[in-house]
Design brief:
Layout (H helix, E strand, L loop, with lengths): L2 E3 L6 E3 L1 E4 L9 H13 L4 E3 L8 H12 L1 H6 L1 E6 L14 H15 L4 E6 L8 H14 L2 E7 L3 H14 L6 E3 L13 H8 L2 E4 L32 H6 L3 H18 L3 H10 L4 E6 L4 H8 L8 H10 L11 H7 L6
Parallel strand pairs: 3-4, 3-10, 4-5, 5-6, 6-7, 7-8, 8-9, 9-10
Antiparallel strand pairs: 1-2
Helix pairs in contact: 1-11, 6-7, 9-10, 9-12
Length: 341
Amino acid sequence: MEYRRLGNSGAVVSVLSLGTWTFGDEADEATSHSILDDFAAAGGNFIDTADVYGPGVSEEIVGRWLAAHPTEHDQMVVATKARFPMGEGPNDVGTSRRHLSRALDDSLERLGIEQIDLYQMHAWDALTPLEETLRFLDDAVSSGKISYYGFSNFLGWHITKAVHLAEAHGWAPPVTLQPQYNLLVRNIEFEVVPACLDADIGLLAWSPLAGGWLAGKYQRDTVPTGATRFGENPERGMEAYARRNAEERTWQIIDAVKSIADARGTSSAQVALAWLAARPAVTSVILGARNQSQLADNLGAADVQLSAEEISRLTEVSAPLVADYPYGAGGVRQRHRAVPD
């Protein structure tokens, strides 16, 4: 297992991390604990959860596993998130000081730990002033309740604004961003990735297999079914997801991944994960296993080193479809110039 620095912090995490949104839902507690056992045995040391998973159930399952495995617990870097509703009240949601102070204490209790290694804002909150959120997070670092903080699903300008506000006030800086990122979904490369590179913020990629598409789960003549990460409501369903992307591009990417996997004798999932782990700014790729066999296959990506030719092939075939301006060739030409020969 390869290890990398957690963004701009001094902590070190495994390049493959374990996402736990399936815990308590698609994976019962016994299965979830077996998945955690296998992940730790493979050298993984980075667990990602959230208060809204369950809600609360995933954190509780992780907490009971940590309590039962003190040796592994000592080596694990534990991340959780807050922002989405955890109750019916108007203040049971968001990134206000009021909500986060309670959400953080509740997560600490469910996890059974005294300090959360990485506390992440699950999404942008348009109502709460960013200064309020950042001041709370700085206080949480100072009090020892969290070691570091990061964001999830932020846009490029969100990240840049947060970085400069923290610097201007002398507050602890953000260290990571957790976005959706995979061969099918690469639009974060236009603004989000450059913002993270500029601030030395590490990317923690969620949905690296695009709900199973990049693992070969679906065929051209089948309709996606089941509880994919995108199947929680009609607006996020895989059919809507497919419509938002050019169908032929999707299948060209899937075919290219399968071709490389077949030639190497590996799985499509391992190839897709290896490509993502090699992308600029990526600190860790979050695996969302439902069972031990799925986890074992995904962990095999740690041993896959794609050639420059294979990486180039996948990068080219998965290039996002964009208009000429501002992200197409016309816009790029305006923003770049080369040193004369």
